[in-house]
Amino acid sequence: MKTPISRRHFLRGSALAAGAASAAPLLGLPGVALAQRAGRSRLKVDPEAATAQGLPPVMINANENPLGPSASALQAIDGIAPQGGRYLGELQQELEQELASQLGLKTENIVPYGGSTPPLQYTVMAFTSPGASLVTADPTFEAGWRVAESIGAPMHKIPLRKDFSHDVQAMCAADAKAGMLYICNPNNPTGSVTTRKDIEYALKHKPKGSVLVLDEAYIHLSPTAVSGADMVAAGEDVVVLRTFSKLYGMAGIRLGYAAARPDLLKKMTYFGINALPVTAMAAGLASLRDPDLVPQRQHANTVLRDEVTTWLTGKGFACTTSESNCFMVDVKRPAPEFMEAMATYGVFVGRAWPVWPTWSRITVGTPQEMARFQDAFAKVMAGQRGPLQLSTALLQDERRDGSVTAYA
């Protein structure tokens, strides 16, 4: 029996949506407005009071994309939503075929997930154990750390090099019994890139029997980072993780995938796999088929990020070398103090990592948001505080935890 959405019908609809220039009428709001509203649950100030004082919240703390989904993705969501009562397995097959085609893989190499954090967690569960350690950089995205700790797997956190890239030589030498090497490229929170030469070194010299996991959540934002998808095609011990949360602006819609040999994917799916939201799959397909989306957003992000980091370094504040939608800046004081002071101006910046206690992660927002960031930054560094009152209880909770819930 044919499902309500046929492959031919959706292919035609997605192609039309890819060229669209207007937002979805179902949603009724532009992506920027939706992204701003979505951040309210994390605010430490009253958003209405902040707006009344001319300081609407600037949320540059969670590596979200303030542009939200593309116009074509919004139209695809609008078109598919009435069929949300169905699982639409055919749509998932279409998504897998599109991903495989674009990456030069077979559909058997692709498993979609609700973002790339779940498959990252599953790789740690599948390939590490009390007798097989996790080797990572420090600082980097910590979701895997928490899983390793929960299952009793040893961890080796290797400091980044002075150029902020992964020290692959040290990572490969860290533990002959390692089960998994994790490289986030570009790295979160630094935005720094590890070269293809280093990735190849890691693959060649990793401990026998271990798996190299390449987290490419931010790769679409980088003009130089090289994917490891071809290593998957060659049948290597490699798992590539990607998400639509970053450049594609779908963090709240939840779509990502793992690419690997079928036997590696089977070990991961043992721990969990579910039907995907049909809205996420439709938006993902429309995004993949929009030829201008990646180059346009990548260019805009690069120009704005480099303008801000140049301004910061010109004022004497060191920044990481980034090719992502985030970077870290050394604020020369405990990062939580800086975060709190910035929040009094309605500007919410990212946290620090314990290994770099005076560095704060900054997400690249819109030009208007980054202008607000620069204005607040200059005032905070001059010892000033803004007019907004903070919720101290929430701030204390965040400090005690040391982090916030993070997804990719």
Question: What does the model show?
Answer:
The structure is a single chain. This protein has 408 residues and is of the alpha/beta class. It has two domains: 41-67 and 293-401, Aspartate Aminotransferase, domain 1 (Alpha-Beta Complex), CATH 3.90.1150.10; 81-288, 3-Layer(aba) Sandwich (Aspartate Aminotransferase, domain 2), CATH 3.40.640. It has 16 helices and eleven strands. The strands form three sheets. Strands 2-8-7-6-5-3-4 form a seven-stranded mixed beta sheet, sandwiched between helices. β5, α9 and β6 form a beta-alpha-beta unit. α1 runs antiparallel to α4 (71-80). It is globular and about 55 Å long. Mean pLDDT is 88; it is low at 1-43 and 393-404.
The string of secondary-structure elements, in order, is HHHEHHEHEHEHEHEHEEHHHEHEEHH
Q: The CATH topology of the largest domain, please? A: Aspartate Aminotransferase, domain 2
- Give average pLDDT, whole number: 88
> What strand order characterises the main sheet?
2-8-7-6-5-3-4
Low-confidence segments, given as residue ranges, are 1-43, 393-404
N/C terminus separation: 36 Å
Name of the CATH superfamily of the largest domain? Type I PLP-dependent aspartate aminotransferase-like (Major domain)
Number of domains: 2
Main sheet characteristics: 7 strands, mixed
- Helix tally equals 16
The helical percent reads 40-55%
Which class of secondary structure composition applies to the elements? Answer: alpha/beta
Dominant shape: globular
Question: What is the number of beta strands?
Answer: 11
